[in-house]
Automatic annotation (TrEMBL):
Keywords: Cell cycle, Cell division. It comes from Luteimonas terricola. This is Cell division topological specificity factor. The keyword Cell division applies. Pfam families: MinE (PF03776).
Length: 87
C-alpha cells in the first residue's frame, strides 16, 4: 500500500461487479464461435502437462484468435514457481 493511496477514489462493489460481468460476457462471446474441439484439446493438453509439472485445471487456456485470414491457436499455461515434477 502506497503512502498516498488514501487520495485515490475507492471503487464500490457495484462497479467491481460490473467490470467482472463485462469480462465474463466478453469471454462468453468470444467462445461462442469457437470450434467444439477446444474444450477437449484443453483437457488433453492439461493431462500431458501434468505428466511433467503440477498445474491446476485453470492453468491451461486454449483460445482461437482471428488474425486476418488465419485462425491462430493461442495456448497459455500458467506455471507456479514451484515446478515440482509429477512422477
Amino acid at each position: 500500500m502506497g503512502m498516498f493511496d488514501f487520495l485515490k477514489p475507492k471503487k464500490n462493489t457495484a462497479s467491481i461487479a460490473k467490470e467482472r460481468l463485462r469480462i465474463i460476457v466478453a469471454q462468453e462471446r468470444s467462445s461462442r464461435g469457437a470450434p467444439d474441439y477446444l474444450p477437449l484439446l484443453q483437457r488433453e493438453l492439461l493431462e500431458v502437462i501434468r505428466k511433467y509439472v503440477s498445474v491446476d485445471v485453470d492453468a491451461v487456456k486454449v483460445d482461437l484468435i482471428k488474425d486476418g485470414d488465419h485462425d491462430v491457436l493461442d495456448i497459455s499455461v500458467a506455471l507456479t514457481d514451484e515446478r515440482a515434477t509429477v512422477g
